[in-house]
């Protein structure tokens, strides 16, 4: 298995991140990033070549120590994220700060620290963005702003690092625990059949990282079928 490419997936404890880890497992060695070490260990135990990589992306000191070990890295999938919603009037400073700390600075800091390892393998960075990173809606300002920001980061990285491939994935609403919390805040009934499955998003990630060397998948947009 040592000849398989190495992929680091953040947000791997649940939802899209866990689905991405399962999708990549047959063809990659995996590092599973997230805050819940027990959940990471449980997932790793179900995969052929996976190790937990517990990390708090908002802890700069911990990130510096955790990334010092990398020599090469073939794939980096940013799936960790938070969604703190609210209007311009009602969203608090903490709401804005939480969205940007994880959704933007966590992505930026981890990518920057791993650039030497990614360059060494001419690697691939995949950013799980959101439909909110393309269209801002009322009540979604703090979250959408963070997703527009990480979109700009990915676009800049793609232009600046010519040896890397950088793909932004823009899924619509997806059946995850985060989505359940959002729907509850909106006061609506949860209808999972109306949303994408995490496995569908993971399939798009696998297709992007499996693209032949002459191809650079820059953006992938996914919406629930029938709700485009």
Automatic annotation (TrEMBL):
Molecular functions per Gene Ontology: oxidoreductase activity
GO CC terms in record: membrane
Short name of one Pfam family: adh_short
Domain Ketoreductase: 5-174
CDD domains in UniProt: SDR_c
Gene3D superfamilies registered for this protein in UniProt: NAD(P)-binding Rossmann-like Domain (3.40.50.720)
Domain of life: Bacteria
InterPro entries attached to this UniProt entry: KR_dom, NAD(P)-bd_dom_sf, Sc_DH/Rdtase_CS, SDR_fam
UniProt keyword list: Oxidoreductase
Family: Belongs to the short-chain dehydrogenases/reductases (SDR) family.
PANTHER family: DEHYDROGENASE/REDUCTASE SDR FAMILY MEMBER 7B, DEHYDROGENASE_REDUCTASE SDR FAMILY MEMBER 7B
Entry protein name: Short-chain dehydrogenase
Originating organism: Amycolatopsis keratiniphila
Top-level taxonomy: Bacteria, Bacillati, Actinomycetota, Actinomycetes, Pseudonocardiales
